[in-house]
Amino acid sequence: MTTTATPPVLEASGRLDRSKMKKIALASVIGTTVEWYDLFLFGTASALVFNEVFFPQLDPAMGTIFAFLTFASAYLARIVGAVLFGHFGDRLGRKSMLLISLITMGAATFAIGLIPDYATIGIAAPFILLSLRLIQGLALGGEWGGAVLMTVEHSPDRKRGWYGSLVQIGVPAGTLIANLVFLIVAGAVDSEALVAWGWRVPFLASFILVAVGIYIRLNIEETPSFKQVREQGAKAKLPFAYLIQRYWKQVLLGGVATLSTGSTFTLLVASGVNYGASELGHSKDLMLWAVLVACLVALVAIPLFGRISDRVGRKPVIAAGILAEALLAFPFFWLLDTGRPELVFVAYGLMMLAFSANYGPIATFLAELFGSKVRYSGLSVAYMLSGLLGSAITPAITVALVAATGASSSIAWYIGGAAVLSLVALMMLADNSLRSIDRVDTTDDADVAEASAR
């Protein structure tokens, strides 16, 4: 008989309850906003002040490269965090890992605001900065995947793209808040005061967002998919080992397919800011405002493309975004190079729109690649791998490319190449948007039989 294809426990869980979904989505959005605020606050500071605060003995260009390499170090820690939090998330549940990761990130960010500068404690300052950056990466490695699953695994089947994309707006929202706070501080103090102490204010203020995020996440429940894994006794003893054994292709291809989201967004919030301010002479305020306005575009565009993916599938929307990123790589720099402020905003708006089409559906797409017994591990490791391949090295490489060639076209070629790699990997993956999110393992015979029955 096939009448039990949808287990009663899933109906009882209230998956279709709109008020419950709003609460869960809000908890995930606020949590990811806090996490990305903390993470990209570091990126903004790296582009604007960290070379002077922590690497003053170096040539300005080399100081910026070292600041960006410290920025990149978190991406190595994110892989470790993805494995660690993924293990416990697949063994113990999604909710507890979300709380632990949020507290860890908040503590590390607050501590960064307290680090004495190089002039005070010498070489110890950048080493402390590096250590706290690694802790940030460890926390984010576990947080993002859990937030996505908390939303996607609760979502109605035909709205998974929409709800999954809501989690994704935490990236532009966190970046927007980080840049807005920096703009306020930079406008309130002069450049000397900004370097001396002003940059610390946004880091210390993060505890407010963290407190709000913790409060909201304490009041959400575990996902139906994990409840089913637990009730069936289907937990993997070593989720990461099982993941590599059964899903290694999805992990590698998923990481490469998502690579261009990291390189493009890092271009906008870090490399582009540094290039505009250092190479073209644009004011730092102009570049921060360009990022802010672009993030406002993304807040609207990301859920829009997520909703479209529920109608036409994930891959067509993601592929369109990747192609747009590649096509806009050169025009982006042409517009920046004109020196006209209004065209800087146009460049940022267009590229952020392309990024949104790519980024909006990608979280749900990756989640749908894995069975629920190792989905936390699979989703987290694939996404954090993409960060290591795309976001981590982009700032340092772009600064080095401009220093070596003196031409912005070298960065455009880099962004275009990342997009091509992502598109090839995407085409090699299956679009599982029509399959049940509650399947324990995509390769189980029982899952195949259930899919056939429907």
What keyword list fits this structure?
454 residues; mainly alpha; Growth Hormone, Chain: A; 22 helices; disordered C terminus
Topology at a glance:
Layout: H1 8-12, H2 18-48, H3 50-54, H4 60-92, H5 94-112, H6 118-121, H7 124-152, H8 160-168, H9 170-188, H10 191-198, H11 200-204, H12 206-217, H13 224-232, H14 239-257, H15 259-279, H16 284-312, H17 314-337, H18 341-367, H19 375-391, H20 394-405, H21 409-427, H22 445-453
Helix pairs in contact: 2-4, 2-5, 2-7, 2-8, 2-9, 2-12, 2-15, 4-5, 4-7, 4-19, 4-20, 5-7, 5-12, 7-8, 7-19, 8-16, 8-18, 9-16, 14-19, 14-21, 15-16, 15-17, 15-18, 15-19, 15-20, 15-21, 16-17, 16-18, 17-18, 17-21
The unreliable regions are 1-14, 445-454
Architecture, CATH level 2?
Up-down Bundle
What number of domains? 1
The name of the CATH topology is Growth Hormone, Chain: A
Which structural class fits the helix and strand makeup?
Answer: mainly alpha
Question: What does this 3D model show about the protein?
Answer:
The protein has a single domain, classed as MFS general substrate transporter like domains (Growth Hormone, Chain: A, Up-down Bundle). Helix content is about 80%, strand content about 0%. The protein has 22 helices and no strands.
Brief characterization of the structure:
By secondary structure, the chain is mostly helical. Helices cover 80% and strands 0% of the residues.
